[in-house]
Each structure stands twice: as C-alpha cells, then as structure tokens.
Specification:
This protein is of the alpha+beta class. Helices cover 36% and strands 14% of the residues. A 7-stranded antiparallel sheet has the order 6-3-2-10-9-1-18, covered by helices on one side. Strands 7-8-11-12-16-17 form a 6-stranded antiparallel sheet. A 3-stranded mixed sheet has the order 13-14-15.
Length: 602
Amino acid sequence: MKSVSRVLLAFVLALAGLPALAETARPPSAHADAAAARAEGDGKALATHPPGAAIASAHALATDAGFEVLAAGGNAFDAAVAVSAALSVVEPISSGLGGGGFFLLHQADAGGGAGRDVFVDARETAPAAATPERYRDAEGKLDREHSQNGPWAAAIPGLPAALVHLAQRYGRLPLSASLAPAVRLARDGFPVYERLERGYAARREVMERYPGTRAVFLAGGQPPKSGQLLKQPDLARTLEALAKDGFDGFYRGPVAKKLLAGVRAQGGRWTADELAGYRVQEREPLRFGYRGWEIVTAPPPSSGGVALAQMLQILAGWDLARLDPAHRTHLTIEAMRRAYRDRTFYLGDPDFVHVPVDVLASPYYAAGLRATINPEKATSSDVFSGLPTPLEDEETTHFSIIDVAGNRVAATQTVNLLFGSGLVPPGTGVLLNNEMDDFALLPGQPNAFGVMGYEANAPQPGKRPLSSMTPTFMVSPDEVAVLGTPGGSRIITMVLLGVLGYADGLGAQEVAALPRYHHQWLPDVVQAESGAFAPELAARLRAMGHTLRLPEDTVSARASSHVWGNLQTVLWNRRDNALSGGADPRNPVGKAQVQVPMAVAP
C-alpha cells in the first residue's frame, strides 16, 4: 500500500503542470479587490480594532467565564484560559484537564503592526510503555478494550500545560484569576444537561468500573440526570493547585502522585519523569490563500490544516458559486476523498517523522489532484475495503474569541471519545483521555473514527498522535473570521464547509448552521447528517456514481446522533466595525455573545 501511494504521489506531481479540467472564473484576488473597491467607493475607512469582544463556545457558562475575565482586565488569551478551563468542568463528555488541544493565536500588537500568528500544540504524548504490542490481542488483532478504555488508552495530558503557557506568555492576568470561574463551577456545581446525561448512559459500563470515576459521577448514588447539579470538589482542588503552582501544580507534587497512583492501580504504566517532562510546542501555523482570503490553520500533528489546504486549493479551480448544487457537492466530495487519502499515508508528529507539508499543501500539487477529478463522475476508492465510519458522538469541543485589541483565539480541545478513557484517578477529579486510539496502533487498521494510518502515525515514547482538530482563522481585507468544531474525523470537512460558507458571504450564525456531509476516502461512502441532501440532490449524486449512506435511508436507534459537530465561530466585519458570533444550533447549551463596548484596553 505504501508503494502504491508513492507511485500515486509521483503521478499527481507530474500532473501538477497540466491545465485544470475546469477554468477558474475569477482570479483568487477577486474578493480582496472587491473589498478594496467597496472601501474606496464609499469612502469608509476599515477599522483597525474591533468595537468590543466576541466569544462563541459550546456552553453558555464557559462563554460567561471568558467575558468575566475580559471584564477583569484580561485579554483574549486570558479569556481562552478561562473558557478552556470552564469547558473542562462543564463538558467532561468532550474535554478536560486529562486531555489536550490546539490553540491558534493571533497577537494583534506583535510583528511590527501586522500582528503575529502562533500555533500552540498541547497534544497528548505517548507513554514509553505504550508499545504497539500492548494493543494486540492473542490473535494479533487490535485490542479495542486497551486502546479505548482504561489506563492503557490514556496518553500524557497536555491541556494543563497549555493553560499555564497561555497565561504566562500571552496573558495579562495571573493564572489564578483566569482559572477562578472554573474553580467556582467545579466546587459549586452546574446543571446537568441532556447531552451529558445521554453521553454518560452510553459509556456507563466503562465509567463505573473505576472507583475514582464513580466518586465523581455517582456521588449521589445515581448517574447524572438533567437539571441536577454536578459538583466536582476534587477537580476544584486540582484546578486550585494548578492556579497556585502553575505547571508543577499538575505535573509534579501531590496531583501528579495521585495521577500516577490511579493509573498504576488499574494496571497502567506512567512514570513521574513522563509527567514532569511534558512540554507544549509552539509551531508555525500553516497558511495559504483561497479566493482573496488568507487561511491560517493548524500544522502537523494536526492533519486538518494540510487537508484543508489541499481541498480548498483543489476547489479554487472552479467557481463554486456558479455551479448547480449537485456539481458543487460532487467536486467538494472529490476534494475530500483525495485529501483523506494523503492523510492516511503521510501525516504524523513532525518531531518524529518527516511530513512533506511543502508538497502536500502546495497549489501545484493541488492542481495535479484537481486534474484527476472527472467533473461528471465519482472516483472509486476501491484500493481496498474499509469499515463504516461510526455515527457522530459529542466528543471534543471548540471555542472562538476576538477581543477589543484584535487578539484572537481558535481553540479545539478533547479527551477523544465520549468521556475519554472513562478513568478518573482517585482524588484528582481528572478524567483521562483515550488518545492512544488516535495512533496507528496496528498499521492499516481503522480506529474508532474509521480512519487508518501507517508508520508515520505509529506510537513512540513522547510522540503525539495525529489529530483532526482544525482551529482556523480566515482573513480578508475587510473581514476576519475565527472558526472550528469537534467531530472526530469529520472535523476537517466541517471546517471546510464553514470556510466555503464565509467565502460565499454568509454570516457567522449561518455558517454555524450549515448542513454537513463527509467523505474520508475509505470507506468509499458519502455520509451526511439528517436533511443535508434534498432527495433530488441525493439522486443526482448517486447517478454520478457516489455511494450515499444517509440517515433517511436507515432505521437507527441513534437517530438523535444524526446531526454532526458543534461549530463555534466569530466574525469581525472591518468595514462596518461590527462583531457577530455563531453558536451551533445543534447544541442548545452553546452560546455566542458579543459585548460592545468592552473595558479592555488595546
């Protein structure tokens, strides 16, 4: 398979010099030129700073925490600490201190006036004991019990180190101030919501294996029920230790000892040196152009930015706005198919393997990929068969922030699957991730999201698993957008559709509500959430050769899961100096809010 992929890569590179099958109807700078013409024509100067601040997150209490910290004199990065930590309390189904994340930052006052973008990689790392052999059963097959549940599923957490890093390097307030809302939420409790209750029911058997987990979620003798207060006093104390002692408050000292003991008690093997040795990595974001927008997004070990660059630069060869829905959708699916194929073979942790980003994200490589697309017929992915992609769960979370100075944050954080590994080491309140499942534990074997990998994403001590998280900025002369979403392997395609929505001129809430569909090379099927495809569109796509797997075609006990993602986005229109936010309507507890004016000084 690897040799076949290399031949295909060489073939596509050769095709890169050929003309595209479709002609670009307008130059990529058309959006920028139109914006400049509008500003010149109406005499309106573009704003240099937003009029206030905007935050969109997956839970209203987290959005409120961010504004509380802004009102106390913090900037967008302090607010990011507050929102991230609050989500770690109120969304244990999706993320937490026992997980990791990616933070895409823009410092408005750096870089000689142009600002500076930086990508903070707080992805979890593999323990030395977590060798591939640990995840094989007696028959040599992938042991999903070890890869998804309990101590062997958990990698070394990165999120606490990220909160310390953001506060110390980019924030204006002490860490204790930014963590105060989260401490309060953990100590005093918050009302359980339907999604949390439903998620616990789905993972109850695993969660209740572990005494530390039972102490949190069965504290009242019964599983969490909507409307009840969920208090987490151990988590409050862990947050207080982090606030007081910074990095050492989590990765060394009493909390670290409890984490190590809890993992060891369940048969796992973490070491004190691995915990104390964890470090976030600052990386240069990936950037490229799409029709007058500069796209700034996640580099490896995220696969999202490279795939986004491939898909958008493939699609730049067509004027999508002038195409009928069937052809536009067909071409988008074909772009998805090609990007996910490359993801499988080439992407991994850049600190351990060579990732050919310059080639994969090149517009010339995208031109070669575009030349392999038949505008009227689907391409087959029949290299070998794959397994169906599981239905969407509510793992992972995202938030977007812009402050009055123009600083911005796009952050996606996770514990991987619902409630991660299910294991809470006693006395910590910290629910550990199950990110080891994101490694290619068995080459060519799909993980929980149905995506595969090979050597580039094989586990090694200290290595970070490949991720789909894709926090993204879009910048044009007159608009700035911040967006991202959870959704497992579907994250990348949901962000793609959001970017295309903004490029079409949609507003923030319209982008958050866009219908979603997905193709990931293998299995060779197009999936979509309920109602995404009208019957006529579905029929035309099938006539083009696409295999569709739609909720409308099946009877499932999990019909409530036929909506995807939880996209959170904010938009600054510089011509009108107006802020807006979009919270995904699929998530009733999310909240996008704008406050103007804010008291934060630029």
